[in-house]
Amino acid sequence: MPDHLSGHLYAALAAQRVLPVLREADADEAVRRTTALLAAGCRAVELTTSTPGWAGAVSRTAPLSDVHGRPALIGVGTVTTTAQAETALDAGAVFLISPYPAPEVRAVAVRREAVFIEGGFTPGEIAAAVRAAGAAKVFPAHVGGPGFVRSLRAVLPTAVIVPTGGIRPAEVPDWLAAGATAVGIGGGLPTDPDELAAVFAGAATPCRAHRDAAAGR
């Protein structure tokens, strides 16, 4: 994929720090949740193929903008087949995510010059994903905990690492301090607009403090 495409998304994730992972009852609810997230200060949202009618939800949300007027970055997760990858990109997704190594999805992403964050759990799987695209989803993250991400960061210092699975919003600072680029959250995000906005506004604080400490500031 062109570096400017992956770099654009990865920079957005590094700034946002929390990546919502939406598994909804239907497409309408996915659109409603995405719209609320964009209004709360979120820009990148991961819809999933487990939502009935997910492709329609992608096509309806891809043209939207965030609260700052920037184009939304709508991705599709739980992509494990060639057909799902093609459908997601045709619907307007700007990135794909798999829960585990998915060579067939990687092949589509390469052919269509799309951003693909491949899932993995073992160090070998994660390193292979990073070698392919500079990024990896660590899943299921709660099994290894923040300490596992800290160990990965030690040997993959420049990688985009997105732990996902079993992480609650209150635990995000621990994962960021361990070296996560952004944290995938599949449940527990508040529905109140002010509380939701506070999640994204507060996510950068521990990360900034961590960066400043590492730089001696």
From TrEMBL:
**Cross-referenced SUPFAM superfamilies:** Aldolase
Q: Which domain of life is it from?
A: Bacteria
- Specify whether Lyase is a keyword of the entry: yes
**Record carries keyword Nucleotidyltransferase:** no
The pathway it acts in is: Carbohydrate acid metabolism
Alphabetic keyword roster: Carbohydrate metabolism, Lyase
Q: How does it assemble?
A: Homotrimer.
PANTHER family named among the record's database cross-references: 2-DEHYDRO-3-DEOXY-6-PHOSPHOGALACTONATE ALDOLASE-RELATED, 2-KETO-3-DEOXY-6-PHOSPHOGLUCONATE ALDOLASE
Concerning its family, UniProt says: Belongs to the KHG/KDPG aldolase family.
Q: Name the chain's protein.
A: Bifunctional 4-hydroxy-2-oxoglutarate aldolase/2-dehydro-3-deoxy-phosphogluconate aldolase
Organism annotation: Streptomyces virginiae (Streptomyces cinnamonensis)
